Automatic annotation (TrEMBL):
This is Uncharacterized protein. It comes from Alcaligenes xylosoxydans xylosoxydans. It comes from the Bacteria. Residues 1-21 are annotated as: Disordered.
Length: 96
């Protein structure tokens, strides 16, 4: 009888959905500094002595965290003439 896993069978490793321990530890450590990081961004945004680019970048980061990143539109040409796309899948026998 041949050994090995059956198709779709998993052996060992982390179960699906269980986070990596190192990743979880880093995330927890970073979250401890969250309030201070936000306060820093707010102070940069409000500081008139900061360069405008730094103030805008800080404001953008705060908005992204508060409301999510803005949707990026995708150019697709003329809306009255949509792009036609077709997907073709062909099955072939090995060696054919």
């Amino acid at each position: 009888m041949a050994g090995g896993s059956k198709p779709g069978e998993r052996r060992g490793g982390r179960k699906k959905g269980v986070p990596n321990k190192a990743t979880a530890e880093i995330k927890a450590l970073a979250q401890q500094h969250g309030p201070e990081a936000i306060a820093t961004l707010v102070s940069i945004m409000k500081a008139t002595k900061q360069p405008p680019a730094a103030r805008v970048a800080a404001a953008k980061e705060l908005l992204d965290r508060a409301y999510g990143k803005s949707v990026q539109p995708i150019e697709g040409g003329d809306p009255d003439k949509p792009i036609n796309m077709a997907l073709q899948i062909a099955f072939r026998r090995p060696g054919a």
